[in-house]
Design a protein that fits this description.
By secondary structure, this protein is an alpha+beta fold. It is built from four helices and ten strands. Helices cover 27% and strands 28% of the residues. Strand 6 and strand 7 form a beta hairpin. It is elongated.
Length: 263
């Protein structure tokens, strides 16, 4: 309540915050004044209010209402400001923060995938040994584990046999034999390989132009091959092969047979 002389002169108004009435007060006679702890009590006297007192009371009520409205506006503004601060503390992350977070996640996931899928030899000092996958898928594997240099059942046309000189020594007790062959071959096209047919024979030694050479065997196609470090030029060469084998019980190779006569 605003301190004013006109309120203090009002006989029917008692400030309950400062003094208490000498007789009981009905609750219907109590009027609460806004923004103050003072109470206006009406009807304390027997006489009715005169015109001046009614004007004073009306002015007091209007002033009280005005201050009450101003107080309500201030509280609304304060509460609004408080809500804005509270909502600001829970605001969404900015676009820049979101992009940086996504990039970090992608980088971490990429590193995990690289470590998981890349072979361990990649991070070693010697590294991974490269293999020729094309050669492995085309050329077959010989009995020694090396790549056989030919991929067809028919022999290559680059080398042509001219003459065979064969020597055979059978052992009819053990049913085995030893053999040697000297082949005069003619190279028609430059090549690094000589391929021949051979079935169930153990090659003990092979020489080409007097120099011992390594022989590869591929049993599914009954072939043997000799690889050279450099291309053979066109011309005639001599290939010698020594071998051992069992006499065959079927009708291929060097086989044994018998017949019955009248005796």
């Amino acid at each position: 309540m605003i301190e004013n002389d006109m309120f203090e002169e009002e006989p029917d108004v008692v400030d309950l915050a400062k003094e208490s009435p000498s007789y009981p007060i009905d609750s219907d006679d109590v009027v609460y004044e806004p923004r103050s702890s003072r109470l206006l009590v009406r009807g304390l006297g027997e006489n009715d209010l005169d015109e001046d007192e009614e004007d004073y009371e009306s002015s007091a009520r209007l002033l009280g209402m005005s201050f009450m409205n101003r107080s309500s506006n201030q509280r609304s503004a304060a509460s609004s400001y408080t809500r804005q601060q509270h909502s600001g503390s829970c605001s969404k992350p900015s676009t820049k923060t979101t992009v940086v977070g996504v990039l970090i996640l992608v980088l971490v996931a990429s590193m995990i995938m690289v470590i998981y899928f890349v072979p361990g030899c990649t991070f070693s000092r010697n590294g991974c040994q490269k293999t020729n996958s094309t050669m492995n898928s085309i050329y077959p594997i010989s009995t020694s584990g090396e790549l056989f240099p030919w991929t067809e059942l028919r022999l290559p046309p680059s080398v042509h046999p001219v003459h065979y000189n064969i020597s055979l020594h059978p052992n009819l007790t053990l049913m085995t034999f030893q053999g040697s062959v000297s082949i005069l071959v003619e190279v028609l096209h430059e090549t690094k390989n000589i391929v021949l047919h051979s079935s169930d024979m153990n090659i003990t030694k092979a020489t080409f132009e007097g120099k011992e050479v390594h022989v590869l065997e591929y049993k599914p196609w009954q072939q043997i091959a000799i690889k050279f470090p450099e291309d053979l030029k066109k011309g005639k060469y001599v290939l010698n092969v020594n071998y051992t084998a069992n006499l065959s019980n079927s009708y291929d190779g060097f086989y044994n047979s018998s017949y019955v006569d009248t005796n």
